[in-house]
Amino acid sequence: MSRKQLADIIAAIFIFLFVYTAMSKLMGFDAIKIRAGFLPALQPYAVFIGVAVPVTELLTVLLLVMKRTRLCGLVVSLVLMGVFTGYIGWMLWLGVALPCTCGGVISRLTWPQHLWLNVGFMLLGIVGIWCYGAGVKSVKI
């Protein structure tokens, strides 16, 4: 298997992940707003977060689907997973026991399990960027 093929498989995994979680979040939009509102620091931004996160995930999917923007999509995927991982770390540090807003099967994970899952996706993102970037001489924007 070539590096590019591995990068394409990783991109497909991120596409599945982001479509799945974005659709779950959009279907449970009210639950996301309520859960974001539980944290005083996020309360004023609950509606914005409830819309921005799934929209950002779907825009990332568009970047990953198109070959011309796939490397950018992998970078954005890594950044998103870093933000999500930071949020989970913050939740663990605060000791807040809010339910996950990811939806579906992923929402059944404990916060520590979710943290490790996200770290795994971050590692996948790094490998994908390395594999895809190794075959790209220059990136045209």
Write up what this structure looks like.
This protein has 141 residues and is mainly α. The chain has one domain (3-134). It is 73% helix and 0% strand. It contains 5 helices and no strands. The chain starts with a helix and ends in a 7-residue tail after the last helix.
Structure summarized in a few sentences:
With 141 residues, this protein is mostly helical.
What is the residue-averaged pLDDT?
84
- Stretches with pLDDT under 50, minimum 5 residues: none
- Helix-strand pattern, N to C? HHHHH
How far apart are the termini?
Answer: 28 Å
Task: Give me the count of strands.
Answer: 0
Gross morphology: globular
Major sheet details? none
Which class do the helix and strand fractions yield? mainly alpha
The tally of domains stands at 1
Note the total helix count: 5
Keywords for this structure?
mainly alpha; single chain; 73% helix; 141 residues; 0% strand; globular
What's the arrangement of secondary structure elements?
Layout: H1 3-27, H2 29-37, H3 46-65, H4 70-94, H5 111-134
Helix pairs in contact: 1-2, 1-3, 1-5, 2-3, 3-4, 4-5
